[in-house]
Amino acid sequence: MISAEQGTAPVASESDIVTVRKISREMATQMGFGITDVTRIVTAVSELARNIYRYAGTGIMQWQIINRNGIQGIELSFVDQGPGIPDLALALQPGYTSSDGLGMGLPGSKRLMDELEIESEIGTGTTVTIRKWLRGTSY
Amino acid sequence: MTTDMISVVKVRDILLVTIPADPDDGTVCALQEKVLQAMMRYDARGLILDIAMVETLDSFFARTLAETSRMVALMGGRTVIAGMRPSVAITTTQLGMTLGTIASTLNVDRALDLLSRFGERRILE
Amino acid sequence: MSNKPNPAKQSQHTSETVPLSDESQYGMRVADAINRVLLETQNCNTDADVASVFLAIARSFTGSSLGLVGELNSNNRLDMLALSAPVELIRKTPITLGRNVDLCEIRHKVLTEHIPVFVNTLNAAASTLGLPEGFPDVQSYMGVAMIHQGKVMGLISLMNKPGGYTDADAEAVERFAAAFIEVLNRKRAEAAIRLNNARLDTLLKLNQMTQASEHEITDFTLEEAVRHTNSEIGYLAFINDDESVLTMHSWSKTAMTQCAIIDKPIVYPVVDTGLWGEAVRQRKPVITNDYQAPNPLKRGHPEGHVPVLRHMNIPLFDGEKIVLIAGVGNKSTPYDEDDVLQLTLVMQALWKLLQRKRAEEALQQAHAELESRVEERTWELQQINQSLQKEIAERNRAEETIRRQTEEILELSTPVLQVWKGIVMAPLIGTLDSQRTQQFMERLLQMIIDTNSTEALVDITGVPMIDTQTAQHLIDTINAVKLIGAQVILTGVRPAIAQALVHLGIELSGITTRSSMAAGLRYALQQQGLDVH
Questions:
Q1: Contact, A114 vs A132, CB < 8 A?
Q2: Which of these, A37, A26, A1, A3, lies nearest to A114 by C-alpha position?
Q3: Is the pLDDT of residue C94 over 50?
Q4: Alpha carbon distance C393, C143 (integer Å)
Q5: pTM here?
Q6: CB of A98 within 8 A of CB of A87?
Q7: Best interface-test mutation with B: which of C441, C443, C484, C528 has the largest number of B CBs within 10 A?
Q8: Could you give phi then psi for residue C123, rounded to 5 degrees?
Q9: d(CA C428, CA C442)
């Protein structure tokens, strides 16, 4: 049971990717997301956490429960001090894969979540923030 | 998670692999290794990947499965996945991932049926 | 390569030359019956109509002479919803549908074990099975439980099939009963939503009437209360502090026109009042559904007053005290708890609004006075603020209920039914927005897994238009079904849709399509035949 409404977790190893999947699964389930939405969130988290690990080596995932106009949602931010993404528009295009054959998972994550924002600066780092809102019952 | 978590069972000339709920990247890679070794050792002509317990299928996992299937095909075998969960199916579809030419079945029983219908012939994709 | 024909490459030619087995032909008939149930109940307005249509189809399918649908009531007995019989029988005897019918042994068995039961040598009198007097004896009988979301809600009885019932009959009726239950529940949910929408509308309108006078507000509320409880007349009376005197404030318009008394007294001591003062004396809502019958509470009505056949009134409490009485009368069907709730909600809203107005007026007065009133003003403002907050919360809750019910309707309007072993069917009606598609996909996939089906017939005859988003949703659905190990057979693609899809550049190769549901079913049955070793 996750008791806090927000938190931070390191992403610096393969087992960290598993850990943040577990954390996001617990949070999303606790918040009342249906099983399919939980799966979407965890999958997006997996993609973005792996991006940190593969491209920046180390970073963090921050999460918090948010509220907009009385509707609850989950917000997750993936922050690293890695090389940055040179062409954001390209990276967000569906079907884009970087040179080493690993898709960056950004367009996919965008499709799975309600909102996705990126800030990236070459040489400084990248922050990807995703959000999903609770929307009533679903299986 | 270690490679011991992946069990590869031989049923006549078909390999059956039951994949755990949330394998880490290392386990996923180990799966590929183990499968190919077993293909060679048992001269299997089919591989069934039971993913009924899998809760998350991200692009890395999907890619590895597709790769494994292509490698297995080169070694003379055909791959079938069984028991994908609805939530995983929906997410995979909406993520835009394809599993290439891997066939899908509702469960392991049907996977065995499907593979047995291909008879003794080897299939190259 | 493989022995199994690749579905994507199979041509029409092949499907026509392979004959269907007897079993598959029967399956076609069942699916046809399901279709008919869904189609022919579309225009039904009442539950009884829906049940009647269903019974006619069930009778003709099984060759039964009689059919009966009953729902379980709170006494665990059956209230009959519809009766279907040959025209000659219905004309001969006046039909009143039985209520509170006892469960005979067979029915009891069906309802507790949730399986169909049939007996071909019953020899029971018609009345023992809830049929009207004058109906022939029942020789053969088949009962099928009506199950919705795991709970038994009623029973379908088919009777007097020449030659007796068979297992095949039982299985078939179970199948298209599922369609009937879906429709029934959907219609009810729709009716409930319409009612709730109307209620919410009234509450919202009331809250906006801040500028109107007290009398305008109470008159409006009364008219709405009469409307929402399907009544003819209504009245509203305030009560004094010690709850001894009622002051009549408003009569609904129809009451005013029907009532002949010119000089209606305005003030009534509670002790002198008849039925309509009961709510004060008993301090709770009072329903009287048969006013003409000798009623110990009734004290006769004076000449010229509106004749009252059915009556309901409620006391409205503010804390421990009753502050007003509201009553309605002459609904054509009996009043129930729902009507009480209705009236209460609307009167509560009225009372709060009146209080707010009075508090505002008091505020304005205090404003003109000296500064020693400042504290009082602040307190009053706080009261108003608190009640506003409560209103907002209540409105949010009401909206939440409506939204949830709307979702339930959405669910019900995308039924997924098992048509035969290994085949499910989903007729899509209307447009597919994201939320609906989401629910549809989840339900379709789960149904496929639950029934171990390999074919899913998705019919889009009822989808009027298709845009990029809808097309994408459809393709996602087809792909997701493929991923779990089943196949979608898309049917009912009309020319306009076909054009739209091609113009949108949607890639549809690898998707199995057929021109009609029947053709799709035929194909599915063939696939099933090939799947069986």
A1: yes
A2: A37
A3: yes
A4: 47
A5: 0.64
A6: no
A7: C484
A8: 55, 55
A9: 14
**C383 touching chain A per CB within 8 A:** no
Give the separation between CA C138 and CA C169, rounded to whole angstroms. 17
List, for residues C462-483, the tens digit of each pLDDT value.
787 777 877 888 888 999 999 9
CA distances C405 to A120, A135, A137, B43, C104, Å, are 44, 14, 11, 57, 36
Nearest CB to C404; choose among A34, A70, A136: A136
- CA distances to C25, C71, C100, C309 from C76, rounded to whole Å, are 39, 9, 8, 29
Token pair for A66? 């948010």
Amino acid at residue number C184: L
Residue type, B30: A
Query: Treating both helix axes as pointing N-terminal to C-terminal, what angle do C468-484 and B86-95 enclose, rounded to 10 degrees?
Result: 130
Q: Give the DSSP per-residue string, C20-87.
A: PPHHHHHHHHHHHHHHHHHHHTTT--SHHHHHHHHHHHHHHHHT-SEEEEEEE-TTS-EEEEEEE--H
Residues C143 and C157 sit within 8 Å (Cβ to Cβ): yes
The pLDDT tens digits for A1-21 are 566 789 999 999 999 999 999
Q: Do B90 and C445 touch (CB under 8 A)?
A: yes
Q: Given the structure tokens 């940055």, which residue do they identify?
A: A84
Q: What is the pLDDT of residues C177-217, one digit of tens each?
A: 888 988 888 888 777 777 777 777 887 787 777 778 888 88
Q: CA–CA distance from C296 to each of A28, C43, C278, C518 (Å)? A: 60, 45, 11, 64
Q: Whose CA is closest to C234, among C324, C117, C298, C124?
A: C324
Between helix A14-31 and helix B25-42 the angle, nearest 10°, is: 110
> What pLDDT digit, counting tens, does each position of C133-176 carry?
778 888 899 999 998 888 888 999 999 999 889 988 898 898 88
Q: Which three-class secondary structure state does DSSP give residue C473?
A: helix
Residue whose C-alpha is closest to residue C428's, from C371, C372, C497, C370: C497
| Strand duo B7-11 + B14-18: pairing | antiparallel
**Report for A93-107, A119-133, C466-480: range of highest mean pLDDT:** A119-133
Listed in sequence order, the DSSP H helices in C335-493 are 337-368, 374-412, 434-450, 468-484
pLDDT above 50 (res C303): no
Comparing CA positions, the residue from C474, C457, C441 lying closest to residue C524 is C457
- Per CB-CB distance under 8 Å, the chain C contacts of A38 are none
Residue B1 has pLDDT above 50, yes or no: no
For residue A10, give every residue at least 6 positions away whose Cβ sits within 8 Å of its Cβ, in sequence order, or none.
A16, A58, A59, A60
Angle at CA A139, nearest 5°, toward A133 and B6? 100
CB contact B86 to C (< 8 Å): yes
CB-based contact B89 C1, cutoff 8 Å: no
d(CA B64, CA B81): 13
If you search the block for the tokens 């979608």, which residue do you land on? C488
For A43, B91, C147, C354, the CA distances from A40, given in Å and listed in that order, are: 5, 6, 33, 49
Edge-first strand listing for the sheet containing A125-133 = A6-11, A59-68, A71-80, A125-133, A115-121
Residues 11-50 of B with CB under 8 A from C: none
Q: Which residues of B touch A102 (CB under 8 A)?
A: 60
Dist CA B38 CA C141 (whole Å): 60
pLDDT reported for residue A23: 96
The string of pLDDT tens digits covering residues C488-512 is: 999 988 888 888 888 877 767 778 9
Strands C78-84 and C66-72: antiparallel
